[in-house]
Amino acid sequence: MIFTSRFRALALAATATLAAVCGAASADELADIKAAGVINVGIFPDFPPFSSVATDMSTIGYDVDVATGIAKALGVKLHLVPVNGQNRIAFLNDKRIDMLMSVGYSDERAKAIGFAEAYAPYYIAVIGPQAAKIEGPADLAGKAIAVNQGTLEDSSLTKAAPESATIRRFPNYSAVIQAFITGQTDLMAVGNNVGAQVLAKQTALQPEEKFQLMSSPSHIAVRKDETAMIGAVNAAVQAMIDDGSLNAASETWLKTPLKVENLKPAE
């Protein structure tokens, strides 16, 4: 009888522990965010026109408008967290942020994080002075190219550049642009919208897009296997497409109407 009582007590304790573990496993990120009443969103602080710091020190841009729309759809407050190319995936998986803006899709990344549908067209271009004759990857031989370390631009350039090219990696886009416009590098590899800012301002240098390394629409990333969260983000973005607010953001920040057909998975 004593043995039976002890066995039953142990069995009940094990069952309770298992139930607690299963309950924790079944809890999803979306429920946690709604319970907390706030969503922490990782965003580049220096990635105009997607995101940049305004004169009043607030963060503005296309990504901010989209993140604001998603937070509103979820009924929570928005908290922006600055990230960079080196720490952003770790921040997401370490739960320091709940969602990450401006992420290019790749099969390798999809092994570690989850992706919602694309929300902005994006391609990576090599930019150089008008006088420089650069028509394709082979012309990068012997050239120094600036790129933001740890980003899709970095991996795309590394894959395409010949061995004699010198890839200079910097911790943020401001440093990449500065290296290029001051002549520390011959070229730079950046997203089309970062490049557009340089093309518009550097009239003396007369920079221009030389060729595209790849086309990859911008996605919103969440933690792996968070299907409820992905569904909620997709629904929020689709609502912004339907009510015209995503197009308004595109015209304001990207200076072009939104073309939904450009929001396709990267090839």
TrEMBL record:
Q: Which residues form the signal peptide?
A: 1-27
Q: Where in the cell is it found?
A: Cell envelope
* Domain Solute-binding protein family 3/N-terminal residue range list: 38-257
Q: Name one GO cellular component term.
A: cell envelope
Could you tell me which Gene3D superfamilies the record lists for this protein?
Periplasmic binding protein-like II
Keyword list (alphabetical) reads: Signal
Quick one: where is this thing mainly located?
A: other
Q: Which InterPro entries match?
A: SBP_3_CS, Solute-binding_3/MltF_N
Q: Per its UniProt record, what Pfam families does this chain match?
A: SBP_bac_3 (PF00497)
Q: Which family does it belong to?
A: Belongs to the bacterial solute-binding protein 3 family.
Protein name per the record:
Transporter substrate-binding domain-containing protein
Species of the source = Paenirhodobacter ferrireducens
